Amino acid sequence: MAFSLPDPAAFGEPLPLKARPEVLDFLATRRSATALTLTAPAPSEADVESLLRLAVRVPDHGKLAPWRLIILDAAAKTEFAARLQALAEARGDVKQVAKLGKLKAPPMGVAVVSRPRPGDIPEWEQLMSAAVVCANLLYGATAMGYGANWITDWYAYDPDALKILGLEPGERVAGFIFMGTAKETPLERDRPVVSAQVTRWSPPA
To answer: What per-residue confidence (pLDDT) applies to 1?
Structure first.
């Protein structure tokens, strides 16, 4: 089904803040679907357009848009996987070949590419902005009822794999967001104990 988003607001238009309890409920129960369980149907073209709109609504200090997105539809992803497999087989790397399963199974994916811009905004902040694009895609697809998984495997870091993907110098893969229909219901996993990860700042003695 197609999901309708509000029309984009004009620049400078007020966007009133209001409580969204349904969003809190979503965040409290959100769970990634295992990539190997993702099958057709994938998000429709209309849904993908909506997801891309949602993806880029992220904190972006300096308004640099230091990221870009590469859509891997079924045919493109199949070809990408085949070229990666040929690369790994030419190296005799059976582990790399085996790890392509999570790329091959889902019906589509989006590569989020980080491309920091020179200037006053620290590179670290620009990298984090790309990470939030990944999270928005993951959350948006899940909120639409699809299964989604954020993957970074060897082909997110390997220079030859990045050439196959078409990355330019200085660009890096922040993540591959694979999407489809989960053929298995995701199960809850262990979560961090919040109290063990949180402190309250106090002035040093």
So the answer is: 57
What is the average pLDDT across 67-95? 98
Q: Are 108 and 43 in contact (CB under 8 A)?
A: yes
Q: What is this structure's pTM?
A: 0.94
Note the CATH architecture for domain 42-183.
Answer: 3-Layer(aba) Sandwich (3.40)
User: How many whole angstroms separate alpha carbon 168 and alpha carbon 151?
Assistant: 20
Lookup: tokens for 30: 């959100």
Spatial contact of 126 and 66, defined as CB atoms under 8 Å apart: yes
- DSSP class of residue 155 equals G
- Cβ of 136: how many Cβ atoms within 10 Å? 20
DSSP state of 112: E
What's the rounded Cα separation, in Å, for the pair 181 and 40? 6
Going from N- to C-terminal start, the domains of the chain cover 42-183
